[in-house]
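Let us work through a complete example step by step.
Step 1: write down the sequence.
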Amino acid sequence: MTTPALQSAGTRQPARSLLLRSSRERRRGRTDRFMRFLALAASVACVIPLIAMIGFVTVNGITAVNIDLFTKPAKALGVGGGAAAAILGTIQMVGVAAVIAVPLGVLGGFYLNEFAGRRSARWVRFAADVLTGVPSILIGIFVYTVMVLPVKHYNAFAGSAALAVIM
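Step 2: predict the structure and record it as tokens.
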């Protein structure tokens, strides 16, 4: 007979018997440890090639990093030269996209905060949720179809518009 001090609250089993694990619990514990090991092994298997690629690019590309890379334009046929035009174009596109997207985002946030109960606010929230789920490639294809194909020429504003929609 066990004393009341050794019995757990609300049950008639002795406290010592509650510490014993059933065969099902032991099997679940083994399965858990095995799956954790598999997840760790898969992570290591993915990280090793990543480290190898980063090391390869660093070792072979460190000689190309110099002041000319940032100040000279690209040469014909993409052989040699620098990336000044690409860097400047990226800065311009992000700047124009920010000028388009930030005011619209802030105004939309104010509208949703101040008029959250209105039916139009539900539509704005729904549109924002839908745009969050759209892959960026689809946004790019849409902007390409609407802004590039009609004029038959690439332009930075089309890229900025696509980036603004993504923002």
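Step 3: interpret the result. Residues 23-61 form the longest helix (39 residues).
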